[in-house]
Write a structure and sequence with these properties.
Distance between the termini of chain A: 39 Å
Radius of gyration of chain A: 17 Å
Strand content of chain A: under 5%
Oligomer: homodimer
Number of helices of chain A: 8
Chain lengths: 164, 164
């Protein structure tokens, strides 16, 4: 039933938006200097994790067939390189990219029809998709939502008032 | 289409099992002593996080209408109390609980029909569920999968050979 599909899709979308909003709230409580600290000794800095999430989310734009990505220069800094290997844009700039990319995705998500979420993403060929129909857009969203939660679990260590 | 529902459910189940398996692999690389360390200075110990995840997963057994939970004594130690507030079972014991609970859930998950995932979970009344049909079992699974990913992002800091 289409109703059932919509309910299943809603659970994942709600979870995505919930995590974006939790990170937005965390970013609001942190100064640029605090965000630029390592989340734990010797680990990634908050700015790197925000840049990494932004770059990964930006790549979702073409991957889901929405539009070209907005900030391709972030890939080399935040996906193919580890933290401290490359110079990165200032925290204030990263905050803008983060918001731009997630707002753009949100607009596309809101206009997707349930059946569109079941279509193939652009990294799988039509031939492979015929054999592996689970390689659809919703599968990308599930995977990126857990990726977001994974790094949120690390970013939260920058909030020294919280302990979980 | 039922086929579509199955594909959507598969994406979430795959993600659940993938994260369980990543934590299993991490546990295999850690000694009990290593697992009993704080994941970052002043933060939860690995044993606490495994106990916490185990207790939360154990509560999914009644929440999803499968069966009574197996280890209710874990709730007070790992859900209602923070780390270091209560004595906890030894790491070797926690590893057994972790496996027992996740294996039990896996067996139930594998026998669920797509339409069963759309049924209400036991924490919502029939009246409320009629108005809020997204409060279904799949919604619980999505939420617990991101919860698992969140804490996995923290547990991975115990693996000092990895940096992500």
């Amino acid at each position: 039933m289409k109703h059932h599909e919509e309910l299943l899709i809603k659970s994942v979308l709600d979870s995505w938006f919930n995590h974006i909003s939790r990170i937005d709230n965390l970013l609001d409580t942190l100064t640029d200097e605090e965000l630029h600290m390592e989340v734990a000794p010797g680990r990634n800095r908050g700015t790197y994790l925000i840049g990494h999430l932004t770059a990964v989310h930006d790549r979702m734009l073409p991957l889901l067939g929405f539009e070209d990505h907005h900030h391709p220069h972030l890939d080399e800094i935040f996906i193919t390189s580890a933290d401290k290997e490359k110079d990165m844009p200032p925290a204030a700039e990263l905050r803008k990219y983060w918001k731009d990319v997630n707002d753009t995705l949100a607009n596309h998500f809101k206009s997707q029809q349930p059946e569109e979420w079941l279509q193939r993403h652009t990294a799988v060929s039509e031939e492979d998709f015929a054999k592996e129909p689970h390689r659809n857009k919703m599968n990308v969203l599930v995977s990126r939502t857990t990726h977001l939660a994974y790094h949120f679990g690390q970013l939260i260590f920058l909030d020294h008032k919280r302990h979980d």
